[in-house]
Amino acid sequence: MEDLDGLAVEDEVVLKRYLDSDKGSHLKKTIEEFISRLKRREYVNSFELASQTLFTLTVLIRFVAVKRDAAGSTATVLMQVVRAVGRRLIRARPVEIVIGNAVRRVLFTIREENTNLIKGFATDRHSAQPQLHAMLSKSPTESTPLETVKTSLGEAVVDGLQEIQGELENFHEPITKQALEHIHANDVLLVSGSSKTVQMFLKEAKRKRDFEVIVAEAAPACHGHDMARKLCESNISTTVITDSAIMAMMSRVNKVLISPKAVLANGGLLAQTGTHMVALAAKHHRVPVVCVTGLHKLSPLYAHDIDAFADLNSPGSVFDYGEVPDNVHVLAPHYDYVPPELVSLFITNTGGHLPSYVYRLLAEYYNPADNVI
Fold first, then answer.
1. What PANTHER family does UniProt report for this protein, alphabetically (predicted)?
2. How far is CA 283 from CA 50, 198, 346, in A?
3. 337 and 309 in contact (C-beta within 8 Å)?
4. What does the pLDDT look like over 172-181, one tens digit per residue?
């Protein structure tokens, strides 16, 4: 723990106390298995990552709520162990921003539930005037409001996390309901690569609208071919084009639909390679770029150092190893950064928002104190 600051070291000490306690081995195994799967890149989409992160932290909070340190505040202890585990998960896969988002959402829930409980007991205490007989007859062993808060906070937080999990599992539904508001008859839409969210958005619009979709193949992985096949299965008129044809086809496109890996605090996007090129082509032809995404991808991080989000693929997908000269280095980035000025609208599970509104969404989902975990 030499590379950790004082707060991180303190959090790790508190977590270690619980992991080394009775029955802590099962919790430790759950955390280590998740970290191992993160390092092996077994999770392929943001939903799985967010869902598993919430599940792991829920198991942690249930355990700590039962075996909490009676000498300390429950809220403080819960936040310490959540931060400690969150750091371990983020270190295992730093580029997966959705992991940090889930950890911050849990920390926000702990703060919120703790505040609500304290306010609730304070209201009860001041709304009713205590009777002298009740005050004198109260048993010394009865719990005080503070102790009641400590006892019920863990349960309240778990209930809050279950609500978040339910919201996460159904985030596609409120997004797809907005499809008919944004897709009109005879529209020509362009998408790049494959996205389940965009796919469901288009399928919902197909129920009452006839339109055409142009799918860029997104080489070298060419996930656009899978996207086109799934759209054709839904009887959507679909055309697959090479990435080099995007600029030429953009002049006849009405909207561009993209689904990013993450939405950053300034409204910029972290998306699959090639998305920045698509957005620049759309700007040149004055075509609106619509981002279709769930708010679990919303992050309070800024792109001060875009290399911090760099994730390189094997160059073997671009060149055969025998074809590359000795003095040539081949970089195959996995993600592009798309600045907010290239994005026209966000369609989320809470409605449509302009990029300038992202700061308000951040205030509703995260606490600024948790921006750096």
1. TRANSLATION INITIATION FACTOR EIF-2B SUBUNIT BETA
2. 32, 20, 16
3. yes
4. 999 999 999 9
Q: Taking each helix axis as running N to C, give the angle between helix 97-127 and helix 74-92, from 0 to 180 degrees, rounded to the nearest 10.
A: 170
Q: Alpha-carbon dihedral of residues 14, 16, 17, 20, nearest 10 degrees?
A: 170
Angle between helix axes 46-66 and 24-39 (nearest 10 degrees) is: 160
| Tokens found for residue 55 | 């599940």
Q: Are 255 and 187 in contact (CB under 8 A)?
A: yes
The arrangement of strands across the sheet holding 262-263 comes to 262-263, 269-272, 335-338
Angle between helix 358-365 and helix 97-127 axes, rounded to 10 deg: 60
Which ranges in 128-222 belong to alpha helices (H)?
132-137, 145-169, 172-176, 179-182, 196-206
pTM of the model: 0.85
Q: Tell me the pLDDT tens digit for each residue of 301-337.
A: 988 766 667 777 777 777 777 777 778 887 778 888 9
Going by C-beta distance under 8 Å and a sequence separation of 6 or more, which residues neighbour residue 277?
243, 246, 336
Instruction: Look at residue 300 and give its three-state secondary structure.
Output: coil
What torsion do the CA atoms of 281, 285, 288, 291 make, to the nearest 10 degrees? -10
Quick check: helix, strand or coil at residue 327?
coil
Mode of pairing for the β-strands spanning 335-338 and 269-272: antiparallel
Name all domains of the chain by residue range, CATH numbers in brackets. 6-169 (no CATH), 172-370 (3.40.50.10470)
